[in-house]
Amino acid sequence: MEVEVKLRLLDAANHSRLKEILSPFHIKKLNQKNVFFDSANGTLASQRAVLRLRSYSNNNNENTRCVLSLKAKPVLNNGVSRVEEDEEEIEPLTGEQCVEEASKLGLTQSRIIKRCKDEFGIDEEMGFVCLGGFENVRDVYEWRGLKLEVDESKFSFGVSYEVECENDDPEKVKRELEGFLKENGIDYKYSEMSKFAIFRAGKLP
Fold first, then answer.
1. Where in the chain are the domains?
2. Which GO terms describe its molecular function (predicted)?
3. Domain range 2-201, its CATH number among 3.40.190.10, 3.40.50.2300, 2.40.320.10, 3.90.550.60
4. CB atoms within 10 A of CB 96
5. Mean pLDDT lowest for which of 5-9, 101-105, 124-128?
6. Tell me: the pLDDT tens digits for 64-107?
7. H helices of the chain, where?
8. Does position 60 have pLDDT exceeding 80, yes or no?
9. Which partner for 44 in 49, 67, 74, 99 could form a disulfide, CB atoms 3.0-4.6 Å apart?
């Protein structure tokens, strides 16, 4: 179970201000591309599951890492997200080929793909289709013993900004993070939709 605090930053100005304040604690920047898959008739979606292929690229736009993840039964309430998550690394070249031709995903020797078939019922005849996706720039910070992830998600219909923190005590983290944002005059709201839900809705919250 992945448990995260998710707070939506209201605009680019608040996002930039937060990054500026956190800059002494910055440890890395990640360029991510998120692509989603399902069967043509939405087998995973009907069971509240999401199959995501996330690739990480360097400054030359070359994929350096690729992670396949299966998320199920998400709950997002009062800025706290809980979701069952299973992750598996695959070869970047394999990931690129699956994005170009979704049918290759079903042929991948993958524990997660096997779960999609065995547990969720995506059989060989059904196969996978690509739903599309979005890019995300993630700045990671080590702050007060916590790992903060500040995201700029670039959808075809707009850009959203969010700060996330994975922790087993989300209410405590949320209080601390909210206090910090208020002290520094950063406008935010509790996230009400996952990035995938925003992508599928086709509009910003």
1. 2-201
2. pyrophosphatase activity
3. 2.40.320.10
4. 14
5. 124-128
6. 899 999 999 999 999 999 999 999 999 999 999 999 999 999 99
7. 12-22, 43-46, 92-100, 111-118, 170-183, 195-201
8. no
9. 49
CA dihedral in degrees (191, 85, 46, 149; nearest 10)?
Answer: 20
Tokens read off for 20: 């500026």
Among residues 162, 142, 141, the alpha carbon closest in space to that of 151 is found at 162
Take residue 155 and report the two structure tokens written for it: 């959808």
Nearest alpha carbon to residue 142 among 45, 38, 57, 23: 23
- Rounded CA-CA distance 177/191 in Å is 14
- Three-state DSSP class for 53? strand
pLDDT, residue 63, reads: 75
Break the chain down into helix, strand, coil percent, rounded to 5. Answer: 30, 45, 25
CA distance 18 to 51: 31
Residue 113: how many CA atoms within 13 Å on its side-chain side?
A: 21
Residue 127 DSSP label = -
The DSSP code for 51 is E
